[in-house]
Write a structure and sequence with these properties.
By secondary structure, the protein is an alpha/beta fold. It is 30% helix and 15% strand. The protein has one domain: 3-Layer(aba) Sandwich (Rossmann fold). The protein contains nine helices and eleven strands. An eleven-stranded mixed beta sheet has the order 2-1-4-3-5-6-7-8-11-9-10, sandwiched between helices. Bound molecules: 2-acetamido-2-deoxy-beta-D-glucopyranose (3 copies).
Length: 339
């Protein structure tokens, strides 16, 4: 993955050199295509089920192609998980394949990875942001079509998206006409170009019956953050405060990826994958309701109040607000109920 921050810095520097007014506003407003936008037909919808579970065994679903659908392993009696990768990533990324393997290991389901890599290549971040809206609409049309042809129910769909893909997930829910998506999970939703967007232009709680967010690299780009800090779901989780993750400061990787926040930004996907198989108490990401990290960090949020929540795949639904937790600096990350 190449950093959103790096490309945004470049865009802002270029912009700042030709203009002299509020730089912050410009980040949101200059959504101009920087490169060819890419063809929606190049998006690949990769489907796995228990009858084709191997990494390379995916079935490519083609929108509006009945013959293709008739030969597909899609079973709309089962729950459907839809996964969006982020900027300069792809639909067969490790975290997506691992999610698929963990989910299918636990239950029979449809897992659909939306591979929109040709619409989000580095360094064309502004173009990629534009494609969030196009891709969400295109995917929503596919889901509406599957509803019409196969009775796919929105109430049995859970969409998961990382980075830019978190906004694409939310907007897919918004654009869907065949019902309200049951759940959308945003993994460190991208910040640049979205800080001041109204809620109908980014992920927000109205996109699904339940929206849960994991913030791992959230804050301003000046602080080395790629994600949105503000709460944008029904529940928002802030592991280790939600800005920088432990283990991402050491020089274990390339220093560049740490400087530009990629390690912390990608951590949301690792926490997510680990949470799918978390069943015993010490494997859970127990999280406490709290107003902010400083209060939590100083030990002033030790009680569960209306309830503590397990961040990730198995999160309980019904509560709202911001939740905090610490994690280990390396896998396994979960600390159970150790605050
Ligand atoms: C679809 O899933 C349901 C529920 O598990 C199962 O009963 C049914 O046999 C499946 N259909 C096909 C065609 O595999
Ligand atoms: C989505 O796409 C359809 C047809 O492709 C178009 O008519 C509609 O205006 C689009 N909606 C949005 C919100 O872009
Ligand atoms: C935490 O509680 C202590 C007293 O127990 C207090 O001195 C401190 O200011 C509190 N910190 C925050 C951030 O609320």
């Amino acid at each position: 993955m190449t950093s959103i921050i790096l490309t945004t810095f470049l865009a802002v520097v270029v912009w700042a050199s030709v203009s002299c007014t509020g730089a912050d506003e410009s980040i949101d407003n200059q959504v101009v295509p920087e490169s060819p936008l890419g063809d929606l037909e190049d998006i690949r919808f990769l489907l796995w089920t228990r009858s084709n579970p191997g990494d390379r065994d995916y079935y490519r679903l083609l929108p509006e192609d009945l013959d293709n659908l008739n030969h597909s392993p899609l079973n709309t009696s089962l729950p459907t998980y839809i996964i969006y990768h982020g900027f300069n990533d792809n639909g067969e990324s490790d975290w997506i394949l691992n999610s698929k393997t963990e989910v299918l290991g636990q239950s029979s389901a449809n897992v659909l990875s939306v591979d929109w890599q040709t619409l989000v290549p580095a360094p064309w971040y502004a173009s990629a942001v534009h494609n969030v809206y196009r891709t969400a609409n295109y995917s929503a049309r596919l889901l509406d079509w599957l509803h019409a042809e196969r009775g796919l129910q929105a109430t049995r769909i859970h969409i998961i998206g990382h980075s830019l893909g978190a906004h694409t997930a939310g907007l897919t829910g918004r654009y869907l006409t065949s019902g309200t998506i049951a759940r959308i999970t945003g993994l460190d939703p991208a910040g640049p170009f979205f800080y001041h967007q109204p809620s109908d232009r980014r992920i927000d709680p109205s996109d699904a019956a339940f929206v849960d967010i994991v913030h791992t690299n959230s804050g301003s780009i000046i602080e080395g953050c790629n994600g949105l800090f503000e709460p944008v779901g029904h529940v928002d989780f802030y592991p280790n405060g939600g800005m920088h993750q432990p283990g991402c400061f050491a020089t274990h990787d390339s220093d560049w990826s740490i400087l530009f926040g990629e390690c912390s930004h990608a951590r949301a996907t690792e926490l997510w994958v680990e949470s799918i198989a978390a069943f015993s108490a010490n494997q859970k990401f127990t999280s406490w309701p709290c107003s902010d990290w400083d209060t939590f960090f100083t030990g002033n949020c030790t009680t569960c109040g209306e309830g503590c929540l397990d961040m990730g795949f198995h999160v309980e639904q019904g509560l709202t607000g911001s939740y905090f937790l610490r994690t280990n600096p390396a896998a396994p990350y979960a600390l159970g109920d150790n605050q």
